[in-house]
Amino acid sequence: MKPHYELLSLAAAVFLFSAGCGNLPGRPTAADIPIDPDNISDYTTLYKQNCSGCHGADAKGGAALSLGDPVYLAITDDETLHKVASSGIAGTSMPAFAKSAGGMLTDKQVDIIVRGIREHYAKPDALGGVTPPPYAVVAAGDATRGAAVYETFCSSCHGAGGKGSPKASPIVDGSFLALLTDQELRTLVIVGRPDFGAPDWRNNVPGKPMSAQEISDVVAWLSSQRPQFPGGPYPNPAKAAGELP
Q1: Contact indicator for 87, 101 with CB cutoff of 8 Å
Q2: Among 105, 115, 118, which residue's Cα sits nearest to residue 50?
Q3: What is the pTM (predicted TM-score) of this model?
Q4: DSSP secondary structure letter of residue 226
Q5: Are 62 and 53 in contact (CB under 8 A)?
Q6: Alpha helices of the chain — where are they, by DSSP H?
Q7: I need a labelling partner for 139 at 20 to 30 A (CA). Which of 48, 108, 155, 187 fits?
Q8: What angle do CA 54, 59, 63 make, to 5 degrees?
Q9: What is the rounded CA–CA span in Å between residue 224 and residue 172?
Q10: Is 65 helix (H, G, I), strand (E, B) or coil?
Q11: Is residue 37 a contact partner of residue 108, using CB atoms and an 8 Å limit?
Q12: Exposed / middle / buried, residue 241 (Cβ in 10 Å: 0-12, 13-18, 19+)
């Protein structure tokens, strides 16, 4: 009987020791174990880590336009959103995020971001029954006509010739135009920047939405203001203090 009793005592001791190990100080919990970046599948986490720096917390806009703007989502299909997120926009500050294009996200993670943005912010009635201009240009714009379009729809805020006013910033600044492609300019004209108080294409002039051709024309005019060499050269630049000749 004694050996049997000792065996039971040993088993009990092992059980109690094992149970206690789970609570030992410093023992990592499941929450302490890092997740493989490729396996992150939470939309909020993916958006915060990859998009919020430019597009703002909760997709409300920042250095770049609001991805949560229902008007933007109404004119932009999922294929376009996925392409831009995956491959970026060459020559601009929008980088590629998909691994296939040199980024750090899997195609599945890009899908999660696109789907999450759509599910969180798209609104079926965002356009109020109005047919929007096409997202991409259909008929080429004319810069000469665009100058007149600008004066009609944009100059009241952005000033004569696009050089700014107390209401809004200049939009013919070479450095500003260098950061945006023609498609990005088109998107801004259609969608506006509600986070900055800039209206969409329907509300620049009350009761007079811009036509698709007028949008193409004003984009052509803006594009014609883009300098060949943004940021310089400047005539007779003053030397900074202490700069050698």
Answers
A1: yes
A2: 105
A3: 0.77
A4: -
A5: yes
A6: 2-21, 43-50, 52-55, 70-75, 78-87, 107-121, 143-153, 155-158, 174-178, 182-191, 212-224
A7: 155
A8: 25
A9: 9
A10: coil
A11: no
A12: exposed
Say how far apart CA 24 and CA 43 lie, in whole Å: 34
Residues 40, 109 contacting (CB under 8 angstroms): yes
**Token code pair at residue 15:** 């059980």
Nearest CA to 202 out of 187, 217, 189 is that of 189
| Gyration radius from the chain CA atoms | 28
The two tokens of residue 204 are 């620049």
Gap between the Cα atoms of 38 and 44, Å rounded: 15
Cα–Cα distance between 204 and 155 in angstroms, integer? Answer: 10
Q: Calculate ∠ Cα 201-204-206, nearest 5°.
A: 110
Q: Residue 179 has which token pair? A: 């950061």
Distance CA 40, CA 58 (A): 19
Q: Which residues pair with 198 in a beta bridge?
A: 193
Confidence of residue 203 (pLDDT cuts 50, 70, 90): very high
Domains and CATH numbers, the chain: 37-121 (1.10.760.10), 143-224 (1.10.760.10)
The shares of helix, strand and coil residues in the chain, as percent rounded to the nearest 5, are 50, 0, 50
